[in-house]
Design goal:
557 residues; mainly alpha; 2 domains; 80% helix; globular
């Protein structure tokens, strides 16, 4: 009982330190509703619809649970890929390590509490997604197959348990992997070695998926569903081996099998026990290894480091160093941008001659107006969403934490500090957007002036989203956090910025199509009107947003 009590107290401490703080203002209540309507509900609806479509198709080949199994395995793979560096950071490299390790609490209890709060914090959104997966499955079964499974209590209980337990096994795998790696590589003196494990896992899972679809011929949903129904998909077969209890959960839900449900629960219990025992043996030593990494000899100071730099340049360097050298910020704010060019390359390279993508490219190259309008809207949406997604702008002041007062008292004008934070977001975000634009243009082959217009529209939408994020964060920065991951999880400004830009994207998409379809004007006039509107919006964002609103917010801190 004492062990459970210790873990619970530590868990409550971690949970309170990472709880999102919602300012008590009408604006923020409105933004919270906006995020719910434009992000959470659409994501759940899309996943549910996808689950419904896959189940409907696989019912015809006698494998109704195949789509559900595929979605659960993909979610498990994502949880493991993105959970590895989270577990590494929380268990071994968090800033509160030195304070907590001196408490009269055993290392294994500290590890258990940290793991539990990380599991809940990282899986909160996934719980809703899994509810949608099971909901889509049940709806398809109700409409097109035997409805007995819906009323089977074992099936319903399995779905409810699976909603909250499915992410557990991938996170345990992450924790076991981290414990073993810290034990095996304790002679390594560079912490980056441990975080590179995430890259390796991403490449492995990504390469496995690409290999599984290369032999499909035409890559489309019907083709892939046929392979899933036959059970010959290499990607799914491999995941079924790695996350071996998930097929048992799938059978418990689809067949109402009590035996498979008990097997699934038993596997979870055994893996939890294995994690606890290995943690008791290895976690304390892993903490010593992590501490030794932080105490290694530093490189000597170069003479160039002592040379005076322009104030603005020095502030930009400071912002970049904080983002790049802090693992939580580096992964969530910097490296996440690489998803865009990679996805653009994979999408066009593997599907440029197949299905609807080939048809769209053909229409675009024939100067069809709707295809050109679509590409312009995609570029604008990329500029908006990428800037909000990496949260560099929307955590500009939150990242200062308890040292936010220094923004007011250091002998640097507010304007210079604001400009440095904005420039940092630009440096991290826009080059990646430009690279994504280049990749898309290579396959679409637009004219040079049109390609330059795409680059400019990306820049203007990036500026608008950047100013919006900094306005929100300067108005109510989240500064009371224990570690960097808490700063990101507890900062609602990031989600609000995403909600606002999603709304802007939807409005612009609707108005753009209405403008083009209603006026039937030449596409060049459409481009000109859109450019002038975004140029005006970017100017207002710079002058009123960054120049006045953010300045006033900083002055009022």
């Amino acid at each position: 009982m004492k062990s459970f009590h210790d873990v619970k107290i530590l868990f409550d401490i971690f949970r309170k330190g990472t709880a999102a703080y919602l300012p008590q203002k009408k604006l923020y209540r409105f933004l919270a509703a906006l995020v719910l309507i434009l992000i959470l509900i659409p994501c759940i609806a899309v996943v549910g619809f996808f689950s419904y479509v896959m189940t409907e198709a696989l019912i015809e080949v006698g494998n109704p649970g195949g789509g559900m199994l595929f979605e659960m395995q993909v979610l498990s793979a994502f949880s493991m890929v993105f959970g590895t560096w989270v577990i590494f950071s929380v268990l071994f490299f968090s800033s509160d390590r030195e304070h907590l390790s001196t408490l009269p609490v055993s290392a294994v209890h500290l590890m258990s509490a940290k793991f539990l709060y990380s599991y809940i914090a990282e899986s909160a959104m996934e719980f809703f997604v899994l509810l949608s997966v099971f909901g889509g499955y049940y709806l398809a079964v109700y409409r097109y197959a035997d409805t007995a499974g819906i009323t089977n209590p074992v099936s319903v209980i399995a779905a409810l348990l699976g909603t909250f337990l499915l992410p557990l096994i991938p996170m345990i795998y992450c924790a076991l992997f981290c414990l073993l790696l810290m034990a095996l590589l304790k002679g390594i003196k560079n912490a980056n070695t441990f975080f590179h494990a995430t890259t390796v896992l991403t490449l492995l899972f990504g390469g496995l998926f690409v290999a599984s679809v290369r032999n499909l011929g035409e890559v489309n949903l019907d083709n892939y569903l046929e392979v899933l129904g036959s059970g010959n998909d290499m990607f799914l077969r491999t995941l079924n081996i790695i996350f071996f209890p998930v097929p048992w959960l799938s059978k418990a839900v689809s067949e109402g099998s009590l035996i498979h449900l008990l097997l699934y629960l038993g596997a979870n219990i055994l893996l939890c026990l294995l994690f606890y025992l290995m943690g008791g043996a290895l976690y304390q030593e892993g903490l010593y290894t992590a501490a030794a990494l932080g105490s290694r000899q530093k490189k000597g100071i170069k003479e160039s480091d002592l040379q005076p730099s322009p104030v603005l340049l020095s502030n930009i360097k400071k912002e970049l160093r904080v983002l790049i050298r802090t693992k939580a910020f580096a992964n969530n704010c910097v490296y996440v941008n690489l998803i865009l060019p990679v996805c653009a390359f994979v999408l066009f390279h593997f599907m440029k001659e197949q299905g609807s993508m080939a048809s769209f490219i053909s229409l675009y190259q024939k100067n069809m107006g709707r295809a050109r309008v679509t590409v312009m809207i995609v570029m604008i949406a990329l500029g908006f969403i990428a800037t909000a997604m990496n949260s560099v702008a929307s955590t500009a002041f939150t990242r200062e934490g308890a040292h936010l007062d220094l923004v007011k008292y250091i002998p640097v004008p507010y304007t210079t500090q604001i400009l440095a934070k904005a420039a940092t977001s630009f440096i991290i975000t826009y080059p990646v957007l430009l690279l994504t634009c280049v990749i898309i243009c290579i396959y679409l082959r637009p004219s040079l002036p049109l390609a330059l217009l795409y680059a400019v529209m990306l820049l203007l939408s990036h500026i608008i989203s950047l100013a919006m994020g900094m306005c929100l964060d300067s108005n109510s920065p989240y500064t009371i956090w224990d570690d960097e991951y808490s700063a990101l999880r507890g900062n609602v400004n990031t989600f609000f910025n995403m909600g606002v830009v999603m709304l802007m994207t939807l409005v612009i998409t609707f108005l753009s199509y209405m403008l083009y379809e209603t006026l039937k004007a030449p596409i060049e006039l459409y481009y000109a009107v859109l450019f002038m509107l975004f140029l005006a919006g970017a100017c207002v964002s710079l002058i009123i947003g960054l120049g006045k609103r953010v300045y006033d917010n900083v002055d009022a801190l």
